[in-house]
Write a structure and sequence with these properties.
The chain is of the alpha/beta class. The chain has 9 helices and 15 strands. The strands form 3 sheets. Strands 1, 2, 3, 4, 9, 13, 14 and 15 form an 8-stranded mixed β-sheet that branches. It has a 4-stranded antiparallel β-sheet with strand order 7-6-5-8.
Length: 287
């Protein structure tokens, strides 16, 4: 990108602020970067904002409710496990066409899923490859995720920079329902006790890439997280840490490496996608 005098460093959904704190320490090794970087965090939770302020107390930061509030300028953005938390709409292919799954009250007065009449929304929102799926097929689409990907594509395409998205999901658009609820680290019925569990759905990386590409960005990836991290030197980093590690630390380091990269853990389900200015060449981890 060259050495910009000013660049936005952005995170969507920063959680406890740990990832950004680590990123800032690493980026501090780049000459001129700390002076040029403006830290911007997109977070709606007051409680999480407080935790982020504590984790990032050594840095000046600005908080925003959405990406529309970000100032203009080239940016470097990271979204780690952000898109999976955005709402989805589900559609079912019936003999009459695509019908949207809705939340209704059943005969006992409990929340349940029902089907709308055939909806033109399915024809508009679903990727072209899914529109001819056989009857009984379920498909998910996230207009909120596509809207953010479109805005990120427009921003980096015009103003420069890149966005890194890391999350779990599928590389190609496909049928199937992935909406799930998790409460206290265990599976939970999606419609039971609304507000008491985290709702997530698998990210459609192909749809994000299409939306950002149509808006002006160049998509790189997605690639499996294990491949991405190995290309960035995770194995060499782990070996360096192991040289001075105690037996307990060595076990933790080895377990963490496997958790992040092994195919039967996070290595293949999690993926990385970059949305970059078209003039940027292949980015680290993607080639």
């Amino acid at each position: 990108m060259g050495a910009h005098e000013r660049i936005l460093l952005v995170e969507l959904g920063p959680g406890r602020g740990t990832l950004m704190a680590d990123a800032l320490r690493a980026a501090g090794l780049v000459p001129g970067f700390p002076a040029a970087a403006e830290l911007h965090l997109v977070e709606v939770s007051p409680g999480l904002r407080a935790r982020q302020r504590e984790a990032l107390r050594d840095y000046r930061a600005a908080w925003h409710d959405g990406i529309a509030g970000l100032p203009d300028g080239p940016l470097l953005l990271v979204a780690n496990e952000f898109f999976d938390a955005l709402p989805v709409r589900q559609f079912e292919r019936t003999g009459q066409g695509w019908c949207e799954r809705m939340v209704v009250l059943d005969d006992a007065g409990e929340l349940a899923f029902g089907l709308s009449p055939p909806s033109p929304a399915g024809a508009v929102l679903l990727p072209e490859a899914l529109k001819t799926a056989p009857p009984g097929s379920l498909a998910e689409v996230s207009p909120a995720a596509l809207g953010i990907a479109t805005e990120l594509g427009r921003r980096v395409g015009v103003q420069g920079g890149a966005a890194l998205i890391i999350d779990y999901g599928r590389a190609e658009s496909g049928v199937g329902a992935s909406l799930q609820a998790v409460r206290r680290h265990a599976a939970h019925a999606v419609l039971a006790e609304p507000g008491s569990a985290d709702l997530t759905a698998h990210v459609d990386f192909a749809a994000l890439a299409r939306a950002a590409g149509e808006a002006g960005a160049r998509a790189q990836g997605p690639v499996a997280q294990g491949t991405f991290l190995r290309r960035l030197g995770l194995e060499a980093r782990a070996k360096a840490l192991l040289r001075d590690a105690t037996p307990t630390q060595a076990r933790d380091i080895t377990a963490a490496e496997r958790r992040l990269t092994d195919a039967d853990q996070m290595g293949s389900l999690f993926k990385a996608l970059a949305l970059a200015h078209p003039a940027l060449g292949p980015l680290a981890g993607f080639a």
